[in-house]
UniProtKB/TrEMBL annotation, chain A:
Lineage: Bacteria, Bacillati, Bacillota, Bacilli, Bacillales
This protein's record includes keyword Electron transport: yes
Signal peptide start and end residues: none
Alphabetic keyword roster: 4Fe-4S, Electron transport, Iron, Iron-sulfur, Metal-binding, Repeat, Transport
Matches recorded under SUPFAM superfamilies: alpha-helical ferredoxin, NagB/RpiA/CoA transferase-like
Protein name: Iron-sulfur cluster-binding protein
Domain 4Fe-4S ferredoxin-type span(s) in chain numbering: 304-335
Organism for this UniProt entry: Paenibacillus terricola
Taxonomy, superkingdom: Bacteria
TrEMBL record, chain B:
Protein name (database record): Lactate utilization protein C
Organism: Paenibacillus terricola
Domain LUD: 62-240
Lineage top rank: taxon: Bacteria
Organismal lineage: Bacteria, Bacillati, Bacillota, Bacilli, Bacillales
Region called Disordered, residue ranges: 1-44
Amino acid composition bias (Basic and acidic residues), ranges on this chain: 1-16
Skewed-composition ranges (Polar residues): 17-29
Family annotation (Pfam families): LUD_dom (PF02589)
Span of the signal peptide: none
Length: 508, 241
């Protein structure tokens, strides 16, 4: 089901595809803006939002700083609850364990609720290879599975499909023509998946949080499909990132306050479920057998790394996607990994140790910091993007052309005389390419920029040309500056010199 | 090769326990210190201090719960007694032509005697026959009737926990859900419900704890809100007392 291998190689190429899809661009903008304003309203209504963010951050920092203690406690408690706990260092190991269970159970079908970890492992593909049907049951995930695609948004995976495309996909599945009406389409899926839930051998879930002190796992969802897959089938398999831990149910109150508000603007998702072990002997539903596979797959590389350890604090809400001007413009598929948006731009390379395998996604950011502002646990993603770029260049995997170009740039512009010469040259040279006051040529160094924009042509008189005139004008104005205003401005400057501005970048 | 499934699971457990040691040790080494054996001090446990004393009056709790629950697409009614709740459900059954009802085996519902008010409906009680496929019975039900264990005003949530006489399917599979909430179980904050599970401790927790904050919903098709995608599409919160 992964289409990643057939995708063009670089973010620029993939974004080119995304940008040419008018509907995707509009849909992504519409959804992200809706989610973003929902989050804003919900966090404002709740009040003291920064206190809650700080509390959430502290709980995550504490847990990750003692991850060995808490993960061990969780595993022991889950086992005491009757859960079969497994540890997987790599994606290959995790898949191997899941397949072994499916084979042992002679499973014909697996019903799945949304799990980013299983996307990371390409587990559906692996299950299909051994002849097990893997059915995504989240409405959006089901749609994109039928389309043979991957999610483009962490919260709304089928954000890029319109109702006509969806009606076509579902009609093919139904064997009859379904009207492109949301209620009709959802009604078909409800009926179809009901049968699948009841006949499936295995239910597979992700895990939003795992509670160390009780060995419980917690799921947040709106549709009820995660409850279905953890209630109806006889066997449950949960895939869990090793960092999903929180100490207690008390701590869950903070996460339950931050996660739904940040993701969709809800006070709480329709369902929040805490599952503690398989069905008790006297119970009449719930799985007879429960497995939890704890997955590392590159996560532990961040431990002990002062620049990236906080990445493990992420609670997968998607708020940074909705806040990101780049994501809103190019959509999720352009990131080319399991995780998109700012978190994906950092997480995807961070999960890979080898810098030479790093993509160019860390460059798909304007470093504006909107992701940090939106993050409910205050992860400094914009700083991390800079660290990534630096590491890639330091490891000798930077863009060679860029380095040469920058060197040339500094030679050319390093002296004022040469700068003046270059501008003159440009003013003359642009006559060859200028049209309607802009430069649209997509050649040489302007190719990337001009693909989506128009470079303004150089004015006849540059800022440097005008500088001496401007300087004279401002000096004349300066003489008539109100003395009181001048004193105030000087005071501000003096204050700044005494180490003000410490309120800046307050995530330390 | 293991002979029985149990033996196979035992083999996995042995492998898992040895893997656990190396897995956790590797975390400790990456964190650059020995593994802590004592519980670490956790000064930021739970909600911020200012939040813990926050409480609404009973009237305000009911009002706020109602506003939140309705905003999520749910229905709310306040009734004087379980008898009134019984009549309410019977009236709705007549109105919606509900024929098949499944209810929990909770003592409050035994005493309410829904069967009495609805002689024409088929009413089954969860887990009263070992041979029955209870998941299938819940899946075909028009109405599911449960008594809530807690409710939370601030988020508009109903809490139900599983037990032998309380099926997880009863609040999930029927088309319409009725949750009866004795007023004294309605709390202000989420934390007031959650703290009970910490206090109960691992050994005493039920397999399923579910917070339900309205009808099942999705916005996955063009952001158009769809109700009743997988879980109940109509949910009634009935306050009693």
């Amino acid at each position: 089901m992964s289409t990643a291998s057939t995708k063009p190689g670089t973010v620029k190429e993939r974004a080119g595809l995304a940008l040419n899809d008018e509907f995707l661009r509009k849909a992504v903008k519409f959804t992200t803006e809706r989610l973003r304003s929902g989050k804003k309203a919900a966090s404002e209504e709740h009040g003291n939002w920064d206190d809650w963010r700080e509390r959430g951050r502290q709980i995550r920092l504490h847990t990750i700083a003692h991850l060995d203690y808490y993960l061990n406690l969780f595993a022991d408690n889950a086992r005491a609850n009757g859960v079969n706990v497994h540890f997987a260092e790599t994606d290959v190991e995790a898949v191997k364990i899941a397949l072994a269970i499916a084979e042992r159970k002679q499973a014909k079908s697996v019903v799945k609720s949304k799990s980013m970890v299983t996307e990371e492992l390409h587990l559906n593909h692996a299950l299909e290879k051994i002849g097990v049907e893997a059915i995504e049951t989240d409405l959006g995930e089901y749609i994109i599975q039928l389309a043979g695609e991957t999610p483009s948004h962490i919260i709304i995976p089928a954000i890029h499909k319109n109702r006509y495309q969806i009606a076509d996909l579902l009609s093919a599945e139904a064997g009859e023509t379904l009207a492109p009406d949301t209620q009709i389409l959802a009604g078909f899926v409800r009926k179809k998946l009901r049968e699948k839930f009841l006949e499936a051998d295995i239910g597979m879930t992700g895990c939003n949080f795992a509670i160390a002190e009780t060995g419980s796992m917690v799921l947040f969802e709106n549709e009820g499909n995660a409850r279905m897959v953890s209630t109806v089938p006889k066997t449950q398999i949960t895939l869990m990132g090793m960092e999903r831990i929180i100490p207690s149910f008390e701590d869950l109150e903070v996460m339950a306050t931050l996660l739904p508000r940040s993701a969709t603007g809800q006070k709480l998702t329709v369902y929040m479920s805490g599952i503690t072990g398989p069905r008790r002997t006297e119970d009449a539903d719930g799985p007879d057998e429960m497995h939890i596979i704890i997955v590392d797959n590159g996560r532990s590389n961040q431990l002990g790394d002062p620049e990236f350890q906080e990445l493990l604090n992420c609670i997968r809400c998607g708020a940074c996607l909705n806040a990101c001007p780049v994501y809103r413009h190019i959509g999720g598929h352009a990131y080319g990994g399991t995780y998109s948006g700012p978190i994906g731009a950092v997480l995807t390379p961070a999960l890979k140790k080898d810098e030479s395998q790093w993509d160019d996604i860390a460059n798909a950011s304007s470093l504006c910091g909107a992701c940090y502002e939106a993050c409910p646990v205050k992860i400094p993603l914009h700083d991390m993007l800079v660290y990534l770029r630096r590491r890639k260049v330091e490891s000798g995997n930077g863009n060679l052309l860029e380095s040469v170009g920058m060197k040339g740039f500094s030679t050319l512009l390093g002296g004022s005389k040469r700068m003046r010469g270059v501008i003159r040259l440009g003013q003359l040279g642009q006559k060859l390419v200028e049209r309607d006051g802009g430069i649209r040529i997509k050649l040489g160094p302007l190719k990337g920029w001009n693909t989506y924009r128009v470079t303004p042509s150089l004015p006849k008189q540059s800022f440097r040309d005008r500088w001496s005139t401007i300087q004279k004008e401002t000096q004349a104005e300066g003489a008539t500056l109100d003395p009181a205003l001048k004193a105030r401005m000087e005071a501000v400057v003096a204050e700044r010199k005494q180490g003000g501005g410490s309120s800046h970048g307050g995530h330390a | 090769m293991a002979d029985t499934h149990k033996e196979w699971l035992k083999e996995l457990e042995t492998a898992s326990k040895s893997k656990q040691k190396s897995f956790i040790d590797s975390i400790s080494s990456k964190l650059g210190r020995p593994r802590p054996m004592e519980k670490p001090a956790h000064p930021f446990r739970g909600a911020p201090d200012f939040w813990r004393t926050f409480e609404w009056s009973e009237e305000e709790r009911i009002e706020r719960f109602g506003a939140n629950f309705k905003a999520a697409g749910g229905h709310v009614a306040r009734l004087a007694s379980f008898d009134e709740a019984k009549q309410f459900i019977a009236d709705k059954a007549a109105e919606m032509s509900a024929k098949y009802i499944i209810r929990q085996g909770q003592p409050e519902l035994e005493a309410m005697n829904l069967e009495d008010a609805m002689p024409d409906a088929r009413i089954t009680v969860w887990n009263t026959d070992e041979e029955e496929n209870w998941r299938a019975r819940a899946a075909e039900a028009d109405f599911g009737v449960v008594v809530a264990d807690y409710a939370v005003a601030y988020t508009g949530s109903i809490t139900v926990v599983s037990a032998a006489n309380k099926g997880r399917s009863v609040s999930l599979l029927p088309t319409v859900l009725f949750a009866i909430i004795p007023v004294e179980r309605l709390k202000t904050r989420l934390g007031e419900a959650l703290i009970n599970f910490d206090q109960a401790g691992r050994e005493n927790l039920p397999a399923g704890i579910h917070f339900i904050s309205g009808p099942s919903r999705s916005a996955d098709i063009e952001n158009d809100l769809t109700i009743g995608v997988h879980g109940p599409g109509v949910v009634y919160a009935l306050f009693v007392g």
